[in-house]
Every structure is written in structure tokens, then in C-alpha cells.
Amino acid sequence: MCTALVVGNIVGVGIFVLPASIAPYGLNALTGWLITAVGCGFLAIAFAGLARAFPQDDGPYDYTRRAFGDGTAFAVMWCYWVSVWVSNATIAVGVVAYLTVFTPGLNGHPWLPPVVALSMLWLFVLLNLLGARAVGWVQVLTTVLKLLPLVGAICLGLWVLWRNPGAYREHIPPNPLSIGDVSAVSTLALYAMLGIECAMIPACRVYEPQKTIPRATFIGTVLTAVIFICVSTVPMLLIPQNLLAASNAPFADLFAQAFGARSGQLVALFVIISGLGALNGWTLMVGDVTQGLARHGHFPRFLARENRNGAPTAALWVTGLIASVMLLSNYSESIGSLFTFFIVVVTAACLPLYVVCSLAVIVLGRRGEKAFSGRARLAWVIVGTCGAAYCGWVSIGVGLRPLLWTVGLGAACAPIYWTSVHFRRRAPALPS
């Protein structure tokens, strides 16, 4: 279930349109993907090491607090918290867009798409109220289903390679090597890979976290990275670059090229399933992050309360309402463009968590923490340095404006943190 949570949250709607997004960069896209795969591998090792060393901790908040203190831990998790509920609204909107393939009437009424998107958003809030195990089984099922079209694309590529190897030489993109393009692709690829940390977030709900979380994190990251590189390469080499860049549904076009137009609808169905699975997993994430911040005294205490199924009821309701506001905002022409821009900010908002966890293994090693010192210290220094360097490399591709938004987002948490510190002096934090 933990592995399905990692894979299911990474494989959302984005990977199904990513080949079109990276098509203008040509073969630089493959270089960017390889850098992303290696960088995410180092991040996964850092996450796994922290989970194995501190199985009793409440996920990345406690890991960060051990290394850098409570203030940094809150700022990092605040940025991550915002990125998750914005992502939930985005996924719901993306699923509705693919539903129009089967129900064109959705576009006939301006109020219908937001109502359908809200219905899906709240469906998974209600599902999460049944507890982590119910969510886990849904995640396993949807993860298996969403991988089918991706595996199918890989099989199609192998079939073409066997039947007509020359097809891979007909549409090779002519783009020269460009460091700027490679960096830009790395940023886009990291957005597709967001979720490698998901096994750590609900650490307090995981059975044998010291074993389960490291395995799920590493296996999930490697599995999705390999699949994503393969499925990004096949359309790039089999569809002309100009057509791929203009495609709204590159996988549908790929299958339609081989099996006819009907196969495009089948792919759209799997994209919908993929989006619903991601929405299921990310709803669990936002509930757990909200509950964790409340448990540590930064949010109102009622957000930490659980129902009889062990689900953070108030946290799920509140974040569902916030995501609903963002979702409805997407259907307003006045702020629709701002919402689209904020998707780029989501990637930047996750970077603080990735950087801090990478550096944590170095800092804890210098302090003599057994798991990261001794003979293994040099290895952890390499892992942490490479993970942090990769995040720095990706930040170049994000651009100045989204990074400034991320800084502003982090600064917005300062008054909340100071207020929470004031009240925590009067009452101790809830037990983890």
C-alpha cells in the first residue's frame, strides 16, 4: 500500500501530457529526464535513511526539527501543505477536462464542470474519512489500472522496434544540446515526479515504518522514473516533433497512430482513473500534513482529532473547503491565469522539503547521530550533497518569479508560527 501511495501519487494526470510539454526541447528532454531520475534517486535515499533511522518520528516534520529546529520545520511543512491542496484542486480540474471526451455536454453549461470537479473532490474527502486502510486499497487498485496505458506505450514502442526499427530514425528532433533546455526539462520532470516523499508523510500510520517506508520510497521512485523515461521517449521518436508539441493528448495520438482513433478514448479513460487515484492519495496527504501541524501546536488543536477510523476528520473537511475555493477560482476568468501560473509554484513550494531533508542527513551525521555517522558518514554526505545540488539545479529552471512567490509563501507563515509559539507556551503539544 505504501508503494502504491508513492507510485499512485506520482502518476497523476501530468505524465499523460508531459511528452507534449517537453517535445520542443528535443533530445535535451532525455538528458533532463536522466538528471531528474538520478536526482530523485538521491532524494529517495535521503528520505529512506531518515525513515529508517527515526521510525518513531512523525514524518518529515520531526526529521527537519531534529536537524534545523522547530521554526524551519514549520516553514518547510507550511510550503508543502499549500502545494498539496492546490494540487488537489488542479487534479480535479484535469480529470473533468478528460471527462469531456466521453460527455461533451459538460462544456454546454458553465456551471457543470465546477460542480462535477467539486463532486470528485468531496468524494475522496468522504472516502478518506473511512481511514487509511480503505484509502490504501483504492490506491492499490487505481495504481494498477493507471500503469496499464504506460506499460502499453512501452510495449508498443518495443513492438515498433521489432517490426520497423527504422521508424525510430525518421523523426529524431534536431535540437542541439542546451544547458538551459536541460534545466527547464528537469523542472518539468520533477513536477511529474512530485510524490516521492509520500510514504513518509503518514509515518505514524505505517506498519513497521523503519522497513516499510524506505522500501516503498525507493521502489516507488525507481519504478516510476524508469517508466516515465521510457514513455517519454517512445512518442518523441515516433511522432514528428511539431505534431507532438501541439498535441493535447500525446498518448492518445500515439495509440491512434497504431490502432485507430477508438484507442484514444480508451487512453482517456485510463487518464481519468489515473487522476482519480492521485486525488485519492493526495487527499490522504493533505489530511495528514494538516493533522501533523495541529499535533505540533501550529494549527488549532481540533484539526488533530481523529474519528473512530483513525482519520483526521476536521483536517479533511477544512482542507477540502480550501481546495474547493481554489477549484472554483480556476473557473473564474479573472484569476484563471493566476491559477495556471500557481501550478509552477507548486513545484517550487516542494523544493524546501527536498532540500532540507537532503541536508538533514549531513547535519545529523556531523552531530554524531549513529545512523549517519561512523563509516557511513561519507556516503551520507555524498547523498545529501547530491540531493541538495539537484534541487538547486531544478530551481534554475523554475525561474525567478515562481521562486519569489515561494519565498513570499514561506514568509506568510511567520505570523502564524509566532502566534502558535505564544499559545504553545501555555499548553503542551499533543502527543505524536
Write the layout of secondary structure elements.
Layout: H1 2-10, H2 18-22, H3 28-53, H4 60-68, H5 70-99, H6 112-128, H7 132-163, H8 167-170, H9 179-193, H10 209-238, H11 241-245, H12 250-259, H13 262-295, H14 313-330, H15 333-366, H16 377-398, H17 400-411, H18 414-424
Note down, in words, how this protein is organized.
The chain has 432 residues and is an all-alpha fold. The chain has a single domain (2-352, 398-424), classed as Up-down Bundle (Amino acid/polyamine transporter I), CATH 1.20.1740.10. Helices cover 75% and strands 0% of the residues. The protein has 18 helices and no strands. The chain has helices spanning 2-10, 18-22, 28-53, 60-68, 70-99, 112-128, 132-163, 167-170, 179-193, 209-238, 241-245, 250-259, 262-295, 313-330, 333-366, 377-398, 400-411, 414-424. The chain is globular. The chain starts with a helix and ends in an 8-residue tail after the last helix. 52% of the residues are buried.
Tell me which CATH architecture applies here. Answer: Up-down Bundle
The portion of residues assigned to helices is: over 70%
Task: Write down the secondary-structure element order.
Answer: HHHHHHHHHHHHHHHHHH
CATH superfamily annotation = Amino acid/polyamine transporter I
Radius of gyration equals: 21 Å
- Characterize the overall form: globular
The total of helices stands at 18
What is the straight-line distance between the termini? 22 Å
Task: Please count the beta strands (DSSP E, at least 2 residues each).
Answer: 0
User: What's the story with the biggest beta sheet?
Assistant: none
Highest-level CATH class = Mainly Alpha
Judged by helices, strands and strand pairing, the structural class is mainly alpha
CATH topology: Amino acid/polyamine transporter I
Strand content: under 5%
How many structural domains?
A: 1
- Poorly predicted runs are 333-339
Mean of residue pLDDT? Answer: 81
